[in-house]
């Protein structure tokens, strides 16, 4: 029987360009972006620039834009590896603390090991 492997996750989030460095610093400090193996790689991620848009609702307190007005913002998509559910959860909490938006956009995907 093969040894048990640790579950891996991909964390994907979007942030305005000015906040990306701080968000990455926070998630990396929480353990995200580390690849298991002899290479001891850390702070690994993939980024791409794009345009995000949102319209803050009546009860919103937006960091960028105004309530009721459609806002378009240059944002960066960041993808990184989280080895273990505990690291994924810690990275999400770190992201929420570092991100300037009151509702940061992020997703966590469970990876399969083939």
From TrEMBL:
SUPFAM superfamilies: NIF3 (NGG1p interacting factor 3)-like (SSF102705)
InterPro entries in the cross-refs: DUF34/NIF3_sf, N-reg_PII/ATP_PRibTrfase_C
Chain ranges passing through the membrane: none
Signal peptide bounds: 1-19
Keywords tagged on the record: Signal
Superkingdom of the source species: Eukaryota
Protein name as it appears in the record: ATP phosphoribosyltransferase
Biological source species: Penicillium chermesinum
